[in-house]
Amino acid sequence: MDTPFTRAMLFFSYIKGPTVNEWVAAQVEWLLAQARGGAQVTDEWLWITIYDRFKDAFTDTMSEQRAEKDIKEVRMQGGEIDQYIAKFETLARLAGMGLDEKGTIKHFTDGLPTKLHRNIIANEPFVPRTWQEWIDAAIRQQQKWLHLKTVFGADTGGGQTPKKPNTRPPNWRPNQNQWRQGFAKDNNAMDLTPGRTRARGALTDHERTKLMAEGKCFRCKKTGHLSRACPDKPRQARATAPEEEEPSARAAQVAPPPKFNVQTFIEDVRKLNDDDKDQVIQEVFMKSDFA
Length: 291
Description:
The protein is mainly α. Helices cover 53% and strands 0% of the residues. Helix 3 (44-71) crosses helix 4 (81-94) and helix 6 (114-123) crosses helix 7. The radius of gyration is 38 Å and the shape is rod-shaped. It starts with a helix and ends in a 6-residue tail after the last helix. The model is unreliable at 155-163 and 186-200 (pLDDT under 50).
């Protein structure tokens, strides 16, 4: 007959293992003592007591064991650094692991995307050591990547051709070669890089400065007149075409500095030669304090 007493004894037969044998023996002794003391084997209180004792003794232990297993497998997904930190910290606390322990921090860094982990080590002022230093650094580097993605990789809208689906990993960050490609000149545009092919008849900055110093015309390179009155210039062009004039009194007036324009800056970088472009990329985009 199924009674609370027999149900409890059957339950004990299924609980085995070195970590629970001592507890089972103690509970069997308690159950037998209750029967010897006059408790009825049909009293439901016997089974309820055993079940509650088991739950109190082993529920936390099983949660801790699951947390110890899960914390070794949890990984940051989809670039969501905040969610990863919150989930990892919860598992660490359930597993009874100190957040500043070396083993805990190793599990945390193992769960970061490889490139984000490398960026933290390469771009932070110092290698993090404590839990707080690691999560602060991870958030900074992830936000930096999201900022760069927004500025240089996001669709700007306005009726442009929709972007292809992003196949890059969630922790992708441009390296120096990719920065250079991003600032490459338009193949259909005139190459204004110093030392490269220039428009026929156009003056270089050096030639222009030399002619100004010598008081010579920009067109025929002779003295005695300015390019707008050059006798070598066709009469019709002299009357209608825009002129390239030498500095005058009006040009000497100081103009207010132009307002910074992001698109103008990008275009200016694209016009640089490769060496100067590399220096800009290194100083502006690859330094650790860029945000």
